[in-house]
Amino acid sequence: MGKAFDNRMVRSRHMLGFTLVELLIVMTIIAILLGILFPVLGASIRRARKTQTDMNYHYGNNGPLAQEIKETPPPP
């Protein structure tokens, strides 16, 4: 009986790898983190696109005005 117990202890000490439960726990944690991350990234991308559109509109409207001011001679 002592020898069988010793063999199990030696074998369990040298076992490599992860159990199925450990892998499932890690996968669950990763899924939760991704579930939090994707909506935040989506909102950031939408905000960046809106800012870019606003800037394009702003510069698009001011471009002709800047050109007109540049070509107008200074007052005497």
Automatic annotation (TrEMBL):
InterPro entries: N_methyl_site, Pilin-like. Keywords: Membrane, Transmembrane, Transmembrane helix. The chain crosses the membrane at residues 20-41. The keyword Transferase does not apply. Residues 55-76 are annotated as: Disordered. It holds the Pfam family N_methyl. It comes from the Bacteria. The keyword Membrane applies. This is Type II secretion system protein. Gene3D superfamilies: Glycoprotein, Type 4 Pilin.
